Amino acid sequence: MVFQDETPGAVVIWHNPACGTSRAVLAAIRTAGIEPAVVEYLTTPPARADLVEAIAAAGLTPRSAARAKEKLFAELGLSEASDEQILDAMIRHPVLINRPFVFAPRGVRLCRPAETVQDVL
């Protein structure tokens, strides 16, 4: 799993091509003249340690990094779950990971709304 590309100045996006916000962020990165490493995290999910690190680096909690509006979130009873239980669910079901996460030299952000990608480019 690519958490961060070790190449100086590299940008990595955890991307879901079915998500409009994720597509908009990817387009904004490319418009800025950067070709990022694109990780389709639904097919190549992050390791637990990478997910924990990404969430912390973005200044989030597992709950704030989860897609609480996803039907599965409710089905799994995660509204009252602990951070550890939410992380476990995110690892088992990557669709619960909010997107897109962008890793860049200026930091890590969960780019929702899409304009927040400018903070790290």
What would you note in describing this structure?
- The chain is of the alpha+beta class.
- It has one domain: 3-Layer(aba) Sandwich (Glutaredoxin).
- It contains 5 helices and 4 strands.
- The protein has a 4-stranded mixed β-sheet, with helices on both faces.
- The two termini are 22 Å apart.
- Its EC number is 1.20.4.1.
- GO terms for molecular function: arsenate reductase (glutaredoxin) activity.
- Keywords: Arsenical resistance, Oxidoreductase.
- InterPro entries: Arsenate_reductase, Arsenate_reductase-like, Thioredoxin-like_sf.
- Give the H and E element order: EHEHHHHEE
Number of strands: 4
The largest beta-sheet arranges its strands as 2-1-3-4
Instruction: Give a quick account of the main beta sheet: strands, pairing sense, barrel closure.
Output: 4 strands, mixed
Radius of gyration: 14 Å
Distance between the termini: 22 Å
Number of helices: 5
And the CATH topology?
Glutaredoxin
